[in-house]
Specification:
4-stranded parallel β-sheet; 8 helices; alpha/beta; about 260 residues
Amino acid sequence: MAIARFRFHDELNDFLPPQRRARGFAYPFDRQAAIKDAIEALGVPHPEVDIILVDGASLGFDYRLRDGDRVDVYPAGAAVPADALRHLMPPLPHPPRFLLDVHLGRLARYLRLLGFDCRYHHRADDAALAARAEREGRILLTRDRNLLKRKCVDLGRCVRADDPFTQLEEVARAFSLLGELAPFTRCTRCNGRLVTVDKAAVDHRLEPLTRRYVDDFLQCEACGQVYWHGSHVAHMQALAERLRRRLEIPVSRPPQ
């Protein structure tokens, strides 16, 4: 049995038990161990890893561990003390598009309200979600780290927060969404695009007070859902503004 020393940095420590966070620790391994397998065995899903240094050299997931290796593992955006870095995360889709698992329905609604292409399935199993994320080039958001460990998943994040708005802020920071916000351009029901529609075309679907006082309407191109400005729109405009303010405040973590 050989031994390597691992240290995980910044938010990757979220996946480790307290006694292993922000410090080096020994990892016994079989001499045939791939570094990707070792990282995931320690609890960190590979889509969250951007840079691996082994004795100061930037290497890929295919590297096979050797006895005595000193391994540092970093997420995207971390300050890495080395040159000629090999980034392991593939480029993000532009504009960003997401796929969410069953635990993130409220977050899916928020992302759609802010204009993001966001697929959500409350019944799909892990294999189907992983395959769709790969097929459509979507960022997979989940609360299940084991789902992210599936080999075919390239882009993804294990959402840490419990509160839906805090989840939204977390995802917006992780994927730099501040400049991509486009509120009220997607349907919260089905993810279809919203387009302006004449009042006459939807008049028969309106309640009397809406028909009397509202003149401007949007309609989903996919499912036909009709939207108009009202108290719920004002609420969501406030949510979007709150998110903008939060994202303008940098979040710093203690050095790790």
